[in-house]
Amino acid sequence: MSSIIPLILLWFLSHLTTLTAEPPDLRYKRCFDSRGSYTKPSTYRTNLNILLSDLTSNTQNDYGFYNLSYGQNPDTVSAIGLCRGDVKPNKCRSCLKNASILIPKSCPDLKEAMGGYDECFLRYSNRPILGVMEYDVWISLPNQQNATEPGEYYEAAKELLDGMNGKLTANRVSSVRKYEAANKSGPNSQTVFGVVQCTPDLTEGRCSDCLAQAIDQILPCCYTNTGGRVIMPSCNIRYENYRFFDLVSEDSPPLSPLSPSKAPSSSKGNNKISRTTIAVLGPIVAMILLFISIFIYFRLKKPKETYQADAELHREIILSEPLLLDFESIKTATDNFSDANKLGQGGFGPVYKGKLYNGEEVAIKRLSRNSRQGDREFKNEVMLLAKLKHRNLVRLIGFCLERGERLLMYEFLPNKSLDYLLFVVDPNHQAQLNWVTRHKIIEGVARGIHYLHEDSRLRIIHRDLKASNILLDGEFNPKISDFGMARLFAMDQTQCDTSRIVGTYGYMAPEYAMHGQFSVKSDVYSFGILILEIVSGKKNSSYFHEEHGLDLLGFAWKNWRDGTASRIIDPVLNNSSTNEIMRCIHIGLLCVQENIADRPTMASVTSMLSSYSFSLRLPSQPPFLISSTSSSEKNFHENSSSGATRSTKGGRNNYAESSTNEVSVTEIYPR
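Above: the chain's sequence. Below: its structure in C-alpha cell form.
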C-alpha cells in the first residue's frame, strides 16, 4: 500500500493542469427554448447526466462519432457527438467531454440543445435523432477577416464546397466517414481550404442534401469574409484562407456499426477488481482531491478570474451577431401573426409586433413568399446589419429561415416611422414633431449615413434612403432601416455602375436614376430630399405649383432663389428658430446639386449641422426630375434598363416593377 500512494500522488500531480482547468468556453451553441424544459431534480435531468457521462466511454471508438440513448419514455434522452474527421480519438473525447459539461450549463433546464468547438459538435434531445436528417435550424459563424475580392472569393469557396459534397459519394473512405477536406486556388493567389461533414448515420443521398442546404447559407453568413462555417444538426461545412485541418489516412478501417444503446458493461471479473480498487483507494483519492481543491482556491483564484473575463468577452463577440431564431418562437411571439399585431405593410411583406418570452418587444418583418426580390434582399440585409453597429441604425436581433419562411426580427421602435409622423394628418403628431425634434432627427440620420460611408468596418451605400425607412424610438431618435438594397463598396472605391436600378423614385440622384451610376453622393442626394421633407412637412412627390408642375425640390429652389424661403417651412414651425431652419434648407439644397462633385460629403454635412462656424457656399439650380410634364421623367424611362411605368392613384405616384428596375412602393404605414 505504501508504494501505491506515491504513484497515485505522482499521477494526480502530473494531471493537475487538466483537473484544475475550466473547460474552454463554447465556440457556439443553440438552445431550443420552444422544445420543452425539465425541472430540478427530475428523472430527465438524471438521465441526461448519465447519458452525457457515458457518451464517450467507449474508448474503442476511433472514428469520432458517438451516439447513445438512455431512459424510458417520457424521459428518454438521445445524444450524438461528432468530431471533425481529422481529430485524434483522445482529443475528440476530451472535446466532447468539455461540451457535455458546458452545454447544459449554457442551456439550463432545456430538453434539447446543441453546441461545440472547432473540433467537435454535441447535441441532445428528448426525441429520437439517430438517422434523422435535420437542417431546418443552423448556426453560422463568419470569421473576422474581410475578403479583398468578396465576389470572386465567395465563388471560389462555393465551388470548393460543392465539389467536396459531390466527392463524398465517390470516395469510399470519405463516404464511410461522411467527411471530406480539400483546397482550391482563389483570387489574388490565395488558397481556400474547406471541410464538409455529415453525421455518419445518414445515407449518402441525405448527407448530400443536408450539405447543399448548408452551402446555401454561406451567402447570407459569410459573403464578405475570407472564411466561415455553417453548423446544422446533421451536417456542417467550413472554409478558410488557411489550412485548419490535418490530413486523414486513406487506409482507415471502416466505421463500427452504429448503436443507440448504452455503453457496454464490464465483465464480472472486472467489476470485482473495480470494487476492490475503489474500496482501497477511495479514501486516498478523497484526500488528494481535497488537497487539490485547497490549492486551486488559494493559488489559482486570480488566473481563473482572468479566464472568466476572457471567456465573457469572447461570448459577447459571438453573441453580438444576430441570432438564428426558430419559427415556432416567432409564431408564438406574434400570436400566430395575428392582424391585431400587424404594424404595417412594407415593400416586401408585412411587419408584426411581437413579444419575446423575456418580455422584450420586437418588430418582425415577414417577407412575402411570392416576392421575386425577397431572397436577395433578405440575404443582403442579414449580411450587412450583422456587421453594422450604430445608435442611428436599426438593430437586427435575429432572423429565421424555416418552412419556406423568411423572417427578420428588429428592435421595436414605438414612434413608428418618420413618414407616418410627417405626412399623416394628425394634430398630435404635428405637435410632437417640433423643430427641436426635427433637427435631432436630421442630425441623427446624418450621423448614421456618415457611419455607413466612412466609419463602419464596411463602406455601405444605402440606395433607398427615404422617410419611411427612418424609424423613431421612444425619444424620437432616428434609426435608419431597410438595407435590402444596400451595396457594399471597397474602402477605396468611389463609384459603381449597375443595370439593376433600385430605390424609390423622387429620392434617386439623377445620375443613378438615368444612368445606373451610384456612389456615396447618391445617398447625399437622397438625404437632401429628406431634409426638405422634414423642414416642410410635405412629401417630395406632392405638387406645389399647378402651372409649372413643381415638386418639393423645384418649389424649394424657386422660393430660395426668389428670397421667399419662409414659404418652404412647415406652418407649425412658425415660432421656431428661423435661422437654424434656413440653414437646414441651405444644406438640403447643397446636397441635391446636379453635379456630383458639388455635393458635400456626409462628413461635411455633419459639420455643417453641428457648427455655425462652418461656412456654406451658395447652391446652384438642382435638377428637376419629378414633374408632371417634364421630359426628364420621360428620359428616365427611356434610358433605364427596365420600363417602369407610372400610374396615379389617390394623389400619389406609384411605380410598378418591370424587369430589373426595382422601384419600391411604400405604404403610408411604417415598417
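The radius of gyration is 31 Å.
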